[in-house]
Design a protein that fits this description.
With about 190 residues, this protein is mainly β. Helices cover about 0% and strands about 60% of the residues. The chain has a 7-stranded antiparallel beta sheet with strand order 1-6-15-8-9-10-11, with no helix packed on it.
Length: about 190
């Protein structure tokens, strides 16, 4: 299943069969410039190229976070200056966050909504619907609850890659294990 995918920042301990399981390394993240003043393109992402003007991708994941900001979800990557990630981000004292980061012209923005830490143990699904630069972001959890998280636009889409990602931004983080139990990429 993963033969056409390439790692951006390969993690340790990878098992890639029908399911994808890997362990993050500390001090890994995708973020550019805004607010925090740093640039990191070190998160782990397993990506494949997509040339279609319209497609949908879904990732169902289960994770066992250990440290503040441990996160996992989907990355839609044009280049280091233009990309979108959607994920769940762990906050130990809760609530955690469901969010989307959109990076345009080298600057990231971040939108979030609270997500109960009690739901962190169960499966969580993210879905991106891409239509010629426009991206709809959805998530599903629990008993099938589905909500829209964001609508955004990616600029300068000359080439495009998509795939599951995870990272542990804390420099002292022990890393965590994430399993993507269902990955779907559908050209529509």
């Amino acid at each position: 299943m993963w033969q056409q995918y390439q790692w951006m920042n390969e993690p340790s301990d990878v098992e890639a069969a029908e399911r994808l399981t890997f362990r993050t390394l500390p001090d890994t993240d995708f973020w550019r410039n805004t607010h925090y003043g740093f640039n990191r393109m070190t998160a782990h992402a397993l990506l494949t190229g997509v040339t279609a003007k319209r497609f949908t991708c879904r990732a169902t994941l289960e994770m066992k976070p250990n440290a503040m900001y441990d996160q996992a979800g989907i990355l839609l990557y044009v280049n280091d200056d233009h990309w979108l990630k959607t994920s769940v981000e762990y906050i130990p004292d809760g609530p955690s966050h469901l969010g989307a980061v959109v990076t345009s012209h080298g600057y990231s923005d971040w939108s979030t909504r609270d997500f109960s830490n009690e739901e962190m143990g169960g499966p969580l699904t993210f879905e991106l619907v891409y239509t010629d630069g426009d991206v709809e972001v959805f998530f599903e959890y629990g008993n099938g609850t589905r909500e829209q998280l964001r609508i955004a636009h990616l600029h300068d889409v000359s080439s495009l890659q998509v795939g599951p990602y995870a990272c542990s931004p804390d420099v002292d983080a022990p890393g965590f294990t994430v399993t993507f139990t269902d990955w779907q990429l559908s050209i529509t």
